[in-house]
Amino acid sequence: xxARLLAVGQLISxxxxxxxxxxxLFFLRFWRDxxxxxxxxxxxxxxxxxxxxxxxxxxxxxxxxxxxxxxIRLFAFLLILGAIVDKNxxxx
Amino acid sequence: xxxxxxxxxxxxxxxxxxxxxSVEQLEVLLLLRQSPERGWTADAVARQLYSHPSxxxxxxxxxAGRGLLRELEPACYQYAPRSTELHAxxxxxxxxxxxxxxxxxxLIASKPxxxxxxxxxxxxxxxxxxx
Amino acid sequence: MATAVYLxxxxxxxxxxxxxxxxxxxxxxxxxxxxxxxFVGFTLGNAMLVVDVVVVPTVDLxxxxxxxxxxxxxxxxxxxxxxxx
Lengths: 92, 131, 85
What we know:
heterotrimer; B: mainly alpha; Arc Repressor Mutant, subunit A; three-stranded antiparallel β-sheet; 7 helices; C: mainly alpha
């Protein structure tokens, strides 16, 4: 794997990290504006996904099965599932 | 259901919801409706409404894009709804704006949150009864 | 074990995408379109993780599977900035 390709990979990872954080911030604001719990949960989930991306870069291991970091990803998606379940249980 | 919530008739509610993004835009439309025989430039409208020509121009072109105005010459617009029904709805909206101003303004002002609420509502598995 | 996790993540993303795009079809709110497309991207990213690990372990798909996620996030942020006012 050439150095250039590695650099591009890092760039994309950085962009993705920033993307997750910005989206998380928007969801946080929506929660503030609507007090809808779903947005708070999505905000937390997206920040966690961003943190996982960061952790991957820091450990310099892009295949997360090796590191067990996929557990973090699982947690984020369980939160999202929880938000959906919660939405359907409360006011439907 | 929408009438109960907003205090406005259904067709006016839907018209405002889908076509009007700001109170200024509504004022522009109603102003042009009052003299449908003439064309208006952004400057002329801005002077009437004490607003800024550049934002008025933006409103005018947006209304034209929705089939409510016609562009006679570049940057000169005339009230010309694309159907008689639409004209009738605009007339009713004008009445509502006169008689129930607060309800109209509340609807227009709360629109942005509607998109955000739509995101959240999308996750309801059972479809909510909406318009 | 990891494969099961990624499959779960892919399915969750897919469910979100389906719900959001269905909402777009019903209500016409652009934000739902863009966020729906974003979750399609996330689904692809997660699905490609499974492929990367299970099907072609000798080939590194890292860049390929990051791209749908990146484009998904771009679409999501575009929608959040322009359509949520």
